[in-house]
Amino acid sequence: MNKATRKTVIAGNWKMNKTPAEATELLTAMIPLVKDADCDVIACVPYVDLQAALDATKGTNIKIGAENCHWEKSGAYTAEVSAPMLKAMGLEYVIIGHSERRQYFGETDVTVNKRVKAALSEGLTVILCVGEYLEQREQGVTAEVCAMQTKIALKDVSKEDMSKIIIAYEPVWAIGTGLTATADQADEVCGIIRNVIADLYGAEIAEATTIQYGGSMNDGNAEELLSKVNVDGGLIGGASLVAEKFARIVEAASK
Ligand code: PEP
User: Fold this and answer.
1) Rounded to the nearest whole angstrom, what is the distance from the C-alpha of residue 81 to the centroid of ligand 1?
2) To bridge 118 with a disulfide, which of 20, 83, 112, 161 should be the other Cys (CB 3.0-4.6 Å)?
3) What global pTM score does this model have?
4) pLDDT number for residue 80
5) Beta bridge partners of residue 169, listed in sequence order
């Protein structure tokens, strides 16, 4: 197991927060704080903030991503945004399958797979979210749930495209709740997901795939979580909305 074979990626998920002006303000505050990062730094922001975010971060080491995309290229899908639209803006990243999409907006493993393939076909890098509910953890089916979500999301994704897949293990019970998986729990499940990738694509690709932890990661717990061999970064919700907190997580990931 060699952590050095893969990129460490710290990504913010702003969810439904910040107007374009506020996005500019937050990113402007972050830029000097993360400029020396020794990891990839991404901010995934609401659609309406994308242009402001791209403008604010031009020429910096902060990359911008969207929080979702539709699987069709265009058509009668009111209020949806397609992968080619994101690509045309100059974006490189998109989150797919976040548990809030699964919980509140009817996202299924099958639609996650469709979105993943649409994003990949535009050359976008996907941050694919998987994770179990508390009841599932308590029933002892965390491994099965995460393996199933990962396998279905990656159906028909080629070996070549796996370089554009980042997986975020996000236990649903830890998202926005202040509850964090222990570093050992995060490491264990990220390792289980890595084994699924090895079964599907072989050990070399599994070793090269970045697997993040997400779920109340903050500037107080990031260092311990990120010290684990299978935890290659973080997907950060609440703490990504405060420049100093996000920057301290980036700092922890850069050690
Ligand atoms: C998330 O939105 O992906 C997330 C992990 O949120 P939080 O850090 O607030 O738990």
Assistant:
1) 22
2) 83
3) 0.98
4) 98
5) 130, 213
- What atom in ligand 1 is closest to the CA of residue 95? 3
Question: What's the first-to-final CA gap in the chain, in angstroms?
Answer: 19
How many other CB atoms are there within 10 angstroms of residue 246's CB atom? Answer: 28
Give yes or no: 70 in active site: no
pLDDT, one tens digit per residue, over 145-176 is 999 999 999 999 999 999 999 999 999 999 98
- Other beta carbons within 10 angstroms of residue 140's beta carbon come to 8
Q: What's the rounded Cα separation, in Å, for the pair 197 and 76?
A: 35
Judged by DSSP in three states, 178 sits in coil
Q: Ligand 1, from 10, 44, 170, 242: best to mutate by most atoms within 8 Å of Cβ?
A: 170
Determine the Cα angle at 94 with ends 128 and 196, to 5°: 15
Active site residue 170: yes
